[in-house]
Amino acid sequence: MTPDSGASTGSRQTYMSGQALFKAIESMNRTMEENNVYTFDHLMQRGLPVKYRGIKIQDTTAADPETLQGNPYETWGVAAEMAEVEVDIREGKVRLLKMTAVGDAGTLINPQAVEGQFEGGMMMGAGMALKELYVHNESLNFGKYRIPDFSNYFEMEVILNQTYRRKGPFGATGVGEVVMLPAPPAIANAVFNACGVRVFDLPITKDKILRGMKKT
Question: Which of 119, 211, 122, 104 is nearest to 168 (CA)?
């Protein structure tokens, strides 16, 4: 039983809440070992504390006013992604064939969840790159604002490394936004490699590709 630990944003829950929980459990274990008790009921019977606190504070720094350099976060998840596409140069249509992601989230506490996070991030990134165009007062529902679904599914491969993070729980770090960020530029680079058209504003539509083909 724990208190509310805030929003699940910024890739922070596993790293921040997880390490706070880890420290609280360490404190509880010390009390149980020192008093030779093994269960919650034993703690209650002996009149020992049943609530323990663990605090995780990030070791960060503000930006230097002269160099503008600093350390805004004490740990990072890293990822690289590759996209494979086919481009119909007559119609400007892009078909996403496969994406491959290589990532490192430290020690994998739940490998299946991390792999699913990468797969979801690649799908979201593909939507940003190829489909999602927001038009004010027009994009009012998912009929007009198109996002990927199973009909747009493509092959995915996820390769996970494990580099121990010294300040994370069991050596883990967060893996949230990092899984989506490489996907759109990877897809844009693949489109450029396929047809020579460089699109700088997303999404990459057939009209933009056809206009680019006329200029090349």
Answer: 104
Q: Which of 26, 86, 155, 177 is catalytic?
A: 177
Which pLDDT score is estimated for 216? Answer: 67
- Count Cα atoms within 13 angstroms, Cβ side, for 40: 5
Residue 109 CA to residue 172 CA, distance in Å, equals 7
Torsion of CA 108, 109, 110, 113, to 10 degrees: -70
Domains of the chain, earliest start first: 13-45 (no CATH), 78-215 (3.30.365.10)
Q: CA geometry: angle at 85 spanning 80 and 91, to 5°?
A: 145
pLDDT surpasses 80 at 3: no
Respond yes or no: is residue 138 known to be catalytic: no
12 compared with 186, residue with greater pLDDT: 186
